[in-house]
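Pasting as-is:
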Amino acid sequence: MTVPDDDLARRTEDAIRRMERWDPVLRAVITRMDDEVRTEVARQAAQFESGESAGPLHGMLVAVKDNIDTAGTRTTAGSDFFRDRVPAADAFVVERLRQAGAILSAKVNLAEFALGATTQNAHWGSCRNAWDQTRIPGGSSGGSAVAVAAGMADASLGTDTGGSVRIPASVNGLVGLRPTLGRISNRGVMPLSHAFDTVGPLARTAAEAAAVFSAIDAFDFDDPTSQDGPRRDVLSTLDAGVGRLRVGIPETFFFDEVDPAVAAAVRALGETLATQGSELVAVSLDGAVEAQQHMFRILYPEVAAFHADRLADAPGRFGEDVHRRLQLGVGVDAQKMAESIAWRRNWQRTVERVLLDVDLILTPTVPADVPRVEGAEMIRTTHQITRFTYGFSMFHGPSISVPCGLHPESGMPIGAHLTAAPWREDLLFRAAAAYQAVTDWHERRPPVLEASIA
C-alpha cells in the first residue's frame, strides 16, 4: 500500500485524532504509540524523498493485538499478570511488518489471554463495537477490529484460535483471514492453544488484507508450529475472478437456527459469485454439529494447563469470566480429550473430501445479530457466536470472513465465511476481491467514523 508522502502525515494525524476522540468510549487500545508513529512517518518521508523504497506496506498504519510481542513496547496479553511486560524482541510477524514498511500504530485490546469472543476485558476495559457502542466487538481480537473500523488504523493483526479474527471482522464490517494452520509463524505470540492458534490480518478490503498477509507469510524454522508448504502468491491472482470456481453451500446445520437476515445476506453473496461465473453446489458436512463441543474438550484443558501455575498461585488476578472459562479445562477426562482429538482427524478428512469437489465452502460467520453487552452472559454468548467458526478451526485449512450486508433491524454488519483447502488462501482472496468489486458493503462506515470525519 504505497501512498504519496504528502498525504501520510495528514492521514497519520487523522488516525491519532480519532483515537483521542473515540477510544475513551470504544476502549480498543491498550498502548498508544503516537511518538513512535510520528518518528517512523518522518523516517519514511525521508526515504521517499531520497528515492529509497520503504517496502510494499509503506504508509500503512497497522494496529497489533496485544498478545503479539513488540520490542520496547509493552505486551500485556490483556492480563493483569503481564501489565508491565516489555519484550526485548519483536514477534516474527512484527519483524516482517516492519521490513515491509508498515507503521505500527497501537497495541490493541483483546479478551484476557485471548480467551473469549466478546473482548469485555476486566483489566483493560470493556471494548465496544464501533457501529453501536452498546454491542460487543467480537473477540478475542476485538480491539484489532475496532481500531480499523473506527479509522484508527488501516489494518491490524489479530490471532484466531476458535474464530478470534473472523468473528470481530464479521461484526465490524471487515475482511478477516484465518490462514492455513502453521502457515504464519506464532513465534513471539502469547499462546492460547498450540493446537489451534494462528495470526491473521484484518482490513476493510480483500486487497489490503492480502497485502498484510503477503508480508507476514514466510516459513520460520525457529517456530516449531511453523509449516513449510506450497505458498501461492495471493497478490498476483487477486483480480483473477471467480469464473468456474465451485462454491459449496452446506444443506444442514450452517443455515439452521440462523437469523433470517444473516442467512439471506450470506446466500446473496453466493448468488453474486454465481453471476460472476461461479457454480453453487449443495454439499454435506456430516458431523458439523459436534465440532464445537469436541473443540472445547481439546482447547480448554490445553489452556488450563498453560495457566496452571497462575491458577494455583494467584487465581484472583484473572478476570472473573476468564477464571470461569479456565475452570472448564480443569480435570477434563483424558479419555474424552483423546476421543475428541481422534474425532478431529476424522472431521478434517470430511472437510477435505468436500473440498475435492468444490473450491470453497460458504457459510455465515456468526449465526445471529451482534449481541449487546448489557445483560449478556459472556460464556453463553461466546458459545453462541462461535457455533460455526469452531468447526473450521478444527479443520487445518484457511477461512475468511467478508462483509456482505447490514442487518435490516439493527444496522449491524453481517459477515459471510468462506473456507478453502490448505494453502489455498489465494482462492479466498480472489473470491473476496471479486465480490467487493461489485458491492459496496466494505465501503460503509460506522457512525463513529462518520462523526469523526464531520
